[in-house]
Design brief:
heterodimer; A: alpha/beta; two-stranded antiparallel sheet; 9 strands; globular; B: Methyltransferase, Methionine Synthase (B12-binding Domains), Chain A, domain 1; Rossmann fold; 5-stranded parallel beta sheet; 9 helices
Chain lengths: ~350, ~230
């Protein structure tokens, strides 16, 4: 087999073709402090500038050979476009990710909302489009460029009080269903913009629907239909990511219409592999903080090897790459993946 | 005075109201307990809390999930609000005031609220700073209220690291303060490394820990009462 570059490897994998080894990339945030340092950028400013965002995302490929670049780094893009206020913690020198400062829905009575018709030109959606184009131009021939959107339930948790969302999912699923339907439309529109800008793949992050929080039954009846609607509209390769307990819902995740499922360290991948069969694309499942940041290089090596032995299709973190990952650990991970042969 | 039988019936009603997240019945049963001359403490611990213990078990067994847990908590509060003004203060040798909040950068507060609920039940004075709390504020509030327990919550790895700063600061200003940390990314390892006195890994564990705490308070209460009876 001729040597594949990172982009070819990932795209072949998504297409269901044979690859020389699992690629090592992510569909979630992959900014590192090493990268920010090399660019002389501040974390808080990086979320608000397309050039800085694109450069920070691409730096992980350039510094470590991570096989893709993904922007944004925070989870507020869609909610902000819908009219929520965000906080980027500009005052802080710590690594604080932007959060929603002001929600749209504060109680059950406010659940009737109208989605702005110009959603794709609001908030930072245009900035994201520019960042994607810049990443493509920079490293798009060698590595994949991706982005992510939130799943409808997780997005609902951004625009309304989580407490209300969870209780109403139980007490008044019809009302929540109506909101999820509206949010589904927002997500499809935003993902469509990213596709137009040229992303190679899109991840839908639906971590709010983890079995740590919600029963597999509610996931299936209330949330899965909207995920299916979203994946039916995404044309580029797609990934569904849910963290936490997922062993009971992997069949539903596979049913969502996503090309690949992404799980974290709480998932028993060997079991998932058995459940879904040899062809299913399962991405995962190392712990990006306790292993990649806090572990020794030896622990990194063992964990990454175990992921591959358990049968992941791509070596992929359970959540965002945590920025303070030591260079040595990152290099160890890449090294372990590169020398792996099934 | 209520007969033993009536008492039993009311305690079961309170317990079941919590388990079946029925706020109205919880209120009704709490009022009935008071009208029947029951001790508010008895109704809280052997009715409402015993319901919450069962809810904890069901949560653990994955019969209940977070939405149910939140609704059960509402039912508990509905009864507690009626009973609380009638609680006779017991001297447990515990000072019972606590500062609690979710650290800056983190807007998740469900785990924190569950722990808070158990402190409320136990009769602690709770200074709830809410969520996304600037780190300095924990220290300032501890000093202002002279609380002997501070509970820090972080739902995400991204904010967990901020807890170390608060702990160091608190220790420097008040070496005797007890510090509990909690949240999904927190482990015993992290608690040790950060120098916290205790930790709760997630909502289940927070609930379990809080229940253990209540159980030991209950034991102390029983001991106090046993002494009184002598």
């Amino acid at each position: 087999m001729t040597t594949l570059n990172s982009r070819e490897r990932v795209l072949k994998l998504f297409a269901g073709e044979e690859v020389d080894r699992p690629p090592c990339f992510s569909g979630m945030g992959n900014v590192t402090t090493e990268g920010l340092k090399s660019l002389n950028q501040k974390f808080a400013a990086t979320h608000l500038d397309a050039k800085m965002m694109a450069a920070a995302a691409a730096s992980t490929y350039k510094l470590f050979g991570f096989e893709g670049a993904v922007a944004p780094f925070d989870l507020c893009i869609e909610a902000e476009a819908m009219g929520c206020e965000i906080n980027v913690y500009a005052h802080s020198e710590d690594l604080l990710y932007p959060t929603i400062k002001k929600k749209l829905i504060h109680n059950e009575a406010e659940m009737e909302i109208a989605i702005p018709s110009d959603i794709t030109t609001r908030g930072r959606v245009p900035l994201m489009v520019e960042a994607i184009k810049l990443m493509k131009k920079d490293i798009g021939a060698e590595a994949v460029v991706g982005s992510y959107v939130l799943g409808p339930f997780t997005l609902a948790g951004q625009v309304m009080e989580l407490n209300d969302l969870l209780k109403l999912s139980f007490k008044k699923p019809d009302k929540i269903g109506k909101l999820l339907d509206q949010l589904t439309d927002v997500i499809i529109q935003v993902a469509g913009q990213y596709e137009k800008a040229g992303v190679d793949f899109i991840t839908v992050r639906e971590m709010g629907a983890t079995s740590d929080v919600l029963s597999p039954r509610v996931f299936k009846s209330l949330i899965l239909p909207y995920l299916q609607k979203i994946f039916a509209k995404i044309k580029v390769p797609s990934v569904i990511h849910i963290c936490g307990k997922t062993n009971d819902i992997v069949p539903s995740m596979a049913d969502s219409g996503a090309k690949a499922i992404s799980v974290d360290q709480k998932n028993d991948v060997a079991e998932t592999r058995k459940k879904l069969g040899p062809k299913a694309l399962v991405f995962g499942n190392y712990d990006p903080y306790n292993v990649l940041v806090a572990g020794t290089p030896d622990q990194v090596r063992q964990t990454i090897r175990k992921c591959m032995d358990d049968g992941v299709s791509a070596v992929w973190p359970g959540c965002d790459i945590w920025p303070t990952v030591p260079a040595e650990n990152f290099k160890t991970m890449m090294d372990e993946v590169r020398k792996y042969r099934r | 005075m209520a007969t033993e039988e009536k008492k039993k019936e009311l305690l079961a009603k309170l317990k079941n109201a919590v388990i079946s997240y029925d706020e109205d019945t919880s209120k009704e049963a709490a009022q009935e307990a008071l009208d029947a001359g029951m001790e508010a403490n008895d109704a809280i611990f052997n009715g409402l809390v015993s319901g919450m213990v069962e809810v904890g078990r069901m949560f653990e067994a994955q019969e209940y999930f977070v939405p149910e847990l939140l609704m059960c908590a509402d039912a508990l509060y509905a009864g507690l609000d009626i009973l609380k003004p009638h609680v006779k203060q017991l001297d447990l040798g515990v000072k019972g005031s606590v500062v609690i909040g979710t650290v800056e950068g983190d807007v998740h507060d469900i785990g924190k609220n569950i722990v808070k609920m158990m402190f409320d039940v136990a009769g602690f004075t709770v200074y709830d700073l809410g969520r996304d709390v600037p780190l300095d504020k924990f220290v300032a509030e501890q000093l202002r209220t002279d609380s002997d327990l501070v509970c820090l919550s972080a739902m995400m790895t991204t904010t967990m690291t901020g807890m170390k700063k608060v702990i160091d600061d608190l220790r420097a200003k008040n070496p005797n303060v007890k510090i509990m940390i909690g949240g999904a990314p927190v482990s015993q390892d992290v608690a040790d490394k950060y120098g916290a006195d205790g930790y709760a890994k997630d909502a289940t564990n927070a609930l379990k820990d809080a229940i253990n705490m209540i159980a030991s308070l209950k034991k102390m209460k029983d001991e106090v009462e046993a002494k009184k009876a002598k």
